[in-house]
Amino acid sequence: MSEWKMICRVDDIPVLGSRRVQRAQGMDVAVFRNDQDEVFALLDRCPHKGGPLSQGIVFGNSVACPLHNWTIALADGKVREPDAGCVQRFQVKLDKGCVHLSPAELASIGLEWTAPVAGPQKRDLPAAEDAMTATALSPLPQAGEG
Ligand code: FES
Description:
With 146 residues, this protein is mainly beta. It has a single domain, classed as Rieske Iron-sulfur Protein (3-layer Sandwich), CATH 2.102.10.10. It is 10% helix and 27% strand. The protein is built from three helices and ten strands. A hairpin with a 7-residue loop joins strand 2 (17-21) and strand 3 (29-33). It starts with a strand and ends in a 13-residue tail after the last helix. Bound molecules: FE2/S2 (inorganic) cluster. The site of FE2/S2 (inorganic) cluster has 9 residues, from loops.
């Protein structure tokens, strides 16, 4: 297996934006570009409730999650205070204007996570699977209650 896999050109990633890299297994990887043309790669899953970081707002060397605005450092994946947590990070190699990721990391990092499930799909989950993706949602009140 090659040590590095070419993913895209740096110019293929919008300035202060991101691209998602699909993997054979596991959730996508979010590849970010800041306004200094630095590139970072994190698992596309916020440590709070699984929000898609690739859809967040990139500023400086951070990304703000689109769901509840937690701020995550792009370089190390650490959540900024007052919140706490960490996102799994992937090494990035830039060579001749191209972004490379490690095939070994793509095949091994963050495979334990699944995308959060909400809405009608959530009702169809078996109990065990539901427990792994459960959130603090409370049931909707039924007609006549309350
Ligand atoms: S899911 Fe990212 S801040 Fe809540």
